[in-house]
Every structure is written in C-alpha cells, then in structure tokens.
Design a protein that fits this description.
This protein has two domains: 28 residues; 137 residues, Immunoglobulin-like (Sandwich), CATH 2.60.40. Helices cover 12% and strands 45% of the residues. The protein has one helix and twelve strands, in the order αββββββββββββ. The strands form three sheets. Strands 1, 6, 8, 9, 11 and 12 form a six-stranded mixed beta sheet that branches. Strands 5-2-7-10 form a four-stranded antiparallel beta sheet, with no helix packed on it. It is globular, with a radius of gyration of 19 Å.
C-alpha cells in the first residue's frame, strides 16, 4: 500500500510540474500563435539553392529566393545557429479560410546601415498542400543573435507567428549551399 501511495504522490508531483512548465511560457509553443494553421513544422537545415528569385522591395537584399520543394529540417525547434549556410523557417498548411495571398514578415535584431528590424514579402498559402517560408543566412550582417519572429497575415488577420532564438557560437553544421533535387 505504501508503494502505491508513493507512486500517486510522484505522479501527481510530476503532473503538476509539467502543468507549471507549460503554463509558464517555457514550452515549445510559448512564443507561438497559430490561429490560421492546420499543420505546422519549424526548424533549420543547410540552405538549398533557390529555384528562382523574386523581387521583394521590403527586404534588405531586394529579392527573395524561391524554394519550391518542402525542405526536410535537420533540427526541429526554434533555436537556430547564426551561421552562414543555415536556413530556418516554417512548413505550414493553412486552414481553408486562410488560403490565398498573404504577407510574410521577418522581425529580427537591427541589420544593415539603417538598422532594419523588419522585412516582408508577398506569399501564397495553400490549404491543400504545405508551403515553406524561411530565411537563410547568406551575409555576415545577417548573423544577428537574439529573437527572430516569422509571421504571416492575410487581409490583416494573423495566420501564424513563431519566435525563433538565433544563437551565436553554435556552428554545429558544415553547410554549403545545396542544389534542389528535381
């Protein structure tokens, strides 16, 4: 009888600890809002060569690389190494009422000569297949550690918002730009 009581106490204590952890904002979705999402994955991988480029005047580079294949994340989660050749982002399938053209936003620590903290571009989101949206570290000035937020809005309504933690000194990968496999 004492073993059973001890087990109940330990189980209750563990359950309360898990509940406290999740409600404290320390969980994986603590800094995430996903009201328009049917499915979502996020993480990082070694960047792939874009299939094409599109003008994006509200970005520091003025263009975005288009990746038509859904990438496979090497590491899932929201901690990302600040390293040239690393790309991080989100694979999302939206709920039907959020399908269509939207605006993607990337908020990050100040970059460039004018201290830019937000970049944006238009993107189409599908309810029937996954869409990839992300950011690749290509230039030294982009390697700014701290909170980075990827979000999307359609007609002013939030689809998702995920906060990533970009960390310095975590060169875990030997990444070179990889070609996309057709």
């Amino acid at each position: 009888m004492q073993k059973n009581s001890l087990f109940r106490i330990l189980a209750t204590t563990l359950w309360l600890a898990i509940a406290a952890f999740l409600s404290s904002g320390s969980g994986i979705f603590a800094s995430s809002k996903i009201p328009g999402v049917a499915t979502i994955e996020f993480g990082y991988f070694c960047a792939v060569e874009p299939s094409d480029f599109a003008e994006a005047e509200d970005t520091l580079s003025g263009t975005i690389g288009l990746i038509y294949q859904t990438p496979e994340f090497l590491v899932r989660g929201t901690t990302v190494p600040a390293q040239i050749g690393v790309e991080f982002g989100i694979v999302v399938q939206v709920r039907p009422e959020f399908e269509g053209n939207a605006t993607v936003y990337v908020e990050h620590p100040p970059q460039g000569t004018d201290g830019t903290v937000q970049e944006s571009w238009p993107n189409f989101f599908s309810a029937s297949e996954p869409t990839y949206v992300g950011f690749s570290f290509e230039y030294d000035y982009e390697l700014t550690p701290g909170p980075w937020t990827l979000s999307a809005r359609r007609e002013g309504e939030l689809i998702y918002e995920i906060e990533f933690d970009v960390v310095q000194g975590a060169n875990l990968l030997s990444c070179e730009m990889q070609p996309q496999i057709s």
